[in-house]
Predict the structure.
Amino acid sequence: MHDRKPYLELKQISKRYGGVAALTGVDFSVYPGEIQAVLGENGAGKSTLIKIASGVTDPTEGEVLVEGKPVRFRSPTEAMRAGVVCVFQELSLLPEMTVADNLSIIDPPKWLGLIDAKGQRERARALLKRVGCEDVHPLELVRDLPLSRRQMVEIAKALGRNPRILILDEATSALTADDVERVYGIIRDLKASGVGILYVSHRMREIEALADTATVFRNGRKIETFTKGARSVDAIIEMMIGREVTHQYPEKPDPSTDKPVALAAANLAWGREIQDISFNLRKGEIVGLGGLDGQGQRELLLALFGVLRGVSGTVAVDGKPLLLDGPRRAMHAPLPMALIPEDRKTEGLMLPMSVRDNMTLAALPHLAGRFGVDRDKENAAVQSMVDRLRVKTPDMLAPVSALSGGNQQKVVLAKWLMTEPGIILLNDPTRGIDVGTKQEIYRLMRELANQGAAILFYSTDYAELIGCCDRVLVIYGGRIRRELAGETLNERSLLQSALNVDATEQAA
Amino acid sequence: MTTTGTRRSALSNWRFWFAHNSGVLTAAALFVAMFTLYISNHSAGLTPAVATTAANKAVLLALVAMAQTLPVLTRGLDLSVGMVFVMANCIASVIVVGTVGEGLLGILAVLAIGALAGFINGAIVVWGRLQPIITTLATGAVYYGISLFVRPGPGGDVQSDIADFLTGQLFDTVPAALVVLLFVVLVVWIPYRRSVLGRAAYAVGSNEQAAYMSGVPVQRAKLLAYTLAGLLASVAGLMLTFNTYSGEASAPIAGSYTLNSIAAVVIGGTSLFGGWGSAIGSIFGAFVLRTIEDLLFVFDLPPLWQPLFQGVVLLIAVSLGALRILRVRNRLELFS
């Protein structure tokens, strides 16, 4: 099928982070003038692949070849020099600098050895015109641009580097429909001029519209590369799911709707990220938040906990309206709320402080004696938590930084359980921790629910959502796309609605 | 049609120029207002002698503040600028002596030592991966130790022809110290600002990760920023020697210049979070701080009030910079 040689080739690439394998024995190539889509679930290894191809990380094993010659990219700069340019999902623009500065950041036009500001401005104007952003002034600061324009500037920046291989990682996620069309046009032009394009997207429609070939990844392995049209959407989804190691999940109680509502959200909205979200969360219920990563789930949890400013809509806890003006208010709601944050290192723990101090930080008012904190009461409470969650720590005075990831996460959980919350918001609590600890967390969640807590659980792991939750709300583009429960709560329908290609929409 | 288009774009270029330089312009306007107030209440008015006295004092802090600006732009800090300043002063009082030729050689040696001190700071920050604050706190102590070693008690001398020339007046009107400052701006700051490495410093301060991802030479940018900071601090040290004709390893001078340099940087509109600002702003920031002292003098207020007024000016400058908090949507951003 390919009469030419690949421009970029990865041979038997593996990448391990600590003990966790992100990629295993992957062979992968991109040809000039081809648009190749890369597909896979969250954590399938797509981002690791891109990071290796663009010089952000080194592979643990294997070889990277450019035009048949082995290379070793030690930095993104070296990859760019070799013609491999990446448009990153997390924007690589410099917010405090002008658009013109950003577009020519490494090799600006020069005059007598110094940056030629005028030449740079003209270059910026030409590049902006190429991506149809004539409305952006070259001297505007990037931080003043809306997200959709920034993404276009990011694309213009990549074009300015004359790529031979252009990698687009979810590059259209924030774009308007017009811009998406324009980006399609640019991609087709590049293809015509012989540039190879690696296109990572979760939107099946985009892939159908653009790609020549597609490669599916799952659990860090390449499953198959096929030409467009060779596989149906259903077959592709099947490939993405595969057969997974099943976890042992605690038994779910019989579904019943007569439990009292713990939290009622109505018409919540915040910027682009949350749009008109309404739902009820009942006592004793575990409700999952599903969907692709970054569709507004994290923001929804932060909004409920009062961290976001300017959220519209109403939230009622135990029937009483809750003012969304900060974590303290949420913690003292009629049913106290707790948020287990996503990044335990920055938002959940004080790493140098002891296990005891971390655990009791949020619950100190409960432990107050006549003169400050009652040490005996505190030690007893901490000891009972350490036993209950089986936290493996040499001593309750050991610094949290000395614990393993799973045990650190248990400390975060313990910290919030100490406050005896009635509503627990969990933000991907099992990311990056071992299977054993995961199962203990599942068991604990069910135990808490059985004791009457209402749990809202966001996870990027679909199997986990299916195994743990009574219901799952699938979020897409900031809206509740679908609610899955009982029979319909399975991997296929979850992935279909997450990708926005489910039956309901196809019928419409 | 084309002309209107060009004119409109030229106009909007100006609009952006004002927006980018609003901090510098504010500091400059503040200085002009304060200096006018000072001169109009001065018994002699604006004579070359009055201007020269003011310039000789102000240029010292202006140079140290310029030095401080460079690491700050990379989101660092240099607590050793005051000590490098004093070290240069002490060394200059030993080696910038003899004939004019020997004096000039001595000057070059002092500049090289200053740049080396800055390079050591940068090397520790870049390769040792230590935090700039603690690194420069430690090296600052070392540099002060060297100053004491070179000049245990106040004293020494300096080549007086060079000293008189650089602290006097050009054509009997323009303070020579101001010309030195202008020379430093034209030869060091402007080329730096418009070089790839200088802009890399802004990129690093703006978002180090994004800068790395974009292929910006992060390490070289930081090294150069600290090295130039050492160089500029030693220029200030030389000027101090030319003013006093002697060297003194004074801990209070070193400390107060370090702290005042940070204040001048902030008043000049440079963000302590890096990536935003200009050494020109720091010059005006330094001038503002110095003029406070002069104002207290002409209004016969006790000099003891000086720290209080400096503090108030600094607070106002910082508050202007904090206005961004009003726009924050995610409360977590307040802490980042």
The first strand of chain B starts at residue 169 and ends at 170.
